[in-house]
Amino acid sequence: MDSMASKQPTVIGQRLMDRRSFLGSSIMGLGGIALTQLLATQGLLGATSKGPLRPSIDPARPHAARKPHFAPRARNIIMLFCSGAISHLDTFDYKPELIKRDGQPMPGADKLVTFQGENGNLQMSPWKFRPRGRSGKMTSDLLPYLGELVDEMCFIHSMTSKTNTHGPGENFLSTGFTLDGFPSIGAWVTYALGSENQSLPAFVAIPDPRGVPQASVNNWGPGFLPAVFQGTAFNATKPIRNLASPVPGNVDRATRDYIQMLNRRHAERYPGDTELAARIASYELAARMQLSVPEVTAIDNEPAHILQMYGADSTDKLKAGFARNCILARRLVERGVRFVQLFNGAYAMGEGVGNWDAHRILKDQYEVHGPILDQPAAALLRDLKQRGLLEETLLVFCTEFGRMPTFQKGASGRDHNPEGFTVWLAGAGVKRGFSYGATDPFGYKAVENVVTMHDFHATILHLLGLDHERLTYYNNGIERRLTDVHGHVIRDILA
Asked: Would you place residue 22 in the very low, low, confident or very high pLDDT band (cuts 50, 70, 90)?
């Protein structure tokens, strides 16, 4: 009897055995399933899994447009990268205390040693800062054209880096890692989203007319991602070489058609060979580029007033060359290229000569670099807005780190400073005429709303509709991502 009693159902079990209670419970369960289905259909159901979201890629069409993880604010990116670490203290980060204490030692920095050695006293900017735009944002006379557009910009004054060396710093900005061998942000974006244009590369890097940055191809390399997602480097001065065919047009077209037929037959014989499909796709893209690249790089076809607005008609060949690169960047996104990395500054000419790395004579060197950057970059932002492209294009102005508020001992230039610097964004999805974060009164260290490079990357991916925590690629036993295991979206700057 005791064993029989122990097998009696509980009170809840007795209720479930009751037919009326059983049917009532079943109806509630079916209702829950229906509600879950409705919420999921409308995109209102929170994600229950934080697992990887790897894009499904057809090897025969690796650059085909793919859906983002959620509704994007931006469709295209132009990343304007000032190579050599442009000084925030001489451009966009106004520090009255630095002016007040000009020539005095920086408090708490006795015998401070940075990248190139010991520092001297605090040094105010050689350029006057003025209020600009409706917002009254204070910017320097070094970049007056860009200063006119501050109401379009969303400033981040509290950026930080983890290195004070240019090569690793460029790697960190472009890939999220200081070491070589990691995919660039442009490669990650094209891996995730593909392109709207199948006759142009999905990702284009535009080197400065003076040459390439210090980290060179690392800035647009694929790392461990498939090579098809690397950036294609060319600019308005040096377009892609060897595109012109040595044979007449009708013979060339017939030859391409015949080769395409052979490729298709070969692919049909080996349907599971994804590497073969990818190689055929790359050859076909190269063939299409023979027609599309000469058209997109035909900058002289632009109206005269556009060339003048950018400064492409300047007698300064370097300024005119960079202006033509800015026009090329606009023409590329206009045609659906997903990611454009536009460089201002190069290293082939030496320290500070062709880039923003002004250790020795800041004023003389920046007086050269400022005009090369200013009018063309401002015209790019203005032109994007006039054409309605800024509604779907995010323009990112960045550099690898900042500069010191002091001059180097025995010199009249500023040393490297990864502790705090300025970047800005404009266009799709970000607030206009807005400033976020701050450095200390001297501009040395970020002290308010500190932003890491991983936060910066997470925010860019978010604006493209991508979850930075779930966009991954499995490599060498690790689910790799652009933001490593760090990063938060900077939601306060989102429009």
From this structure: low
Q: Is 11 helix (H, G, I), strand (E, B) or coil?
A: helix
3-state secondary structure labels for all residues of 258-271: HHHHHHHHHHHHCC
Report yes or no: 190 and 470 within 8 Å, Cβ to Cβ.
Answer: no
407 vs 266: CA distance, rounded Å: 65
Residues 286 and 186 in one domain: no
The answer to whether the beta carbons of residues 394 and 427 sit under 8 Å apart is yes
Which residue range(s) make up the domain with 34? 2-41
d(CA 377, CA 424): 13
The 10 Å CB-count burial string (b at 16+, else e) for 316-338 is eebbbbbbbbbbbbbbbbbebbb
Separation of alpha carbons 205 and 241, rounded Å? 15
List beta partners, residue 479. Answer: 474
Query: Are 32 and 9 contained in the same domain?
Result: yes
CB atoms within 10 A of CB 386: 12
pTM of the model: 0.84
pLDDT band at 25 (very low <50, low <70, confident <90, very high): low
Q: What is the DSSP letter of 439?
A: E
Q: For residue 442, what are its two tokens? A: 């001297």
Question: 404 and 273, same structural domain?
Answer: no
Structure tokens at 209: 């007319």
CA 241, 244, 245, 250 dihedral sign is: positive
φ, ψ at 490 (rounded to 5°)? -85, 85
pLDDT over 80 at 259, yes or no: no
Q: Quick check: 73 and 429 in contact, CB under 8 A?
A: yes
Position 206 in a domain = yes
For the four alpha carbons of 306, 310, 316 and 322, in that order, the dihedral sign comes to negative
Q: Tell me the C-alpha to C-alpha distance, in Å, between residue 275 and each of 76, 390, 422.
A: 28, 37, 43
Whether residues 355 and 341 fall in one domain: yes
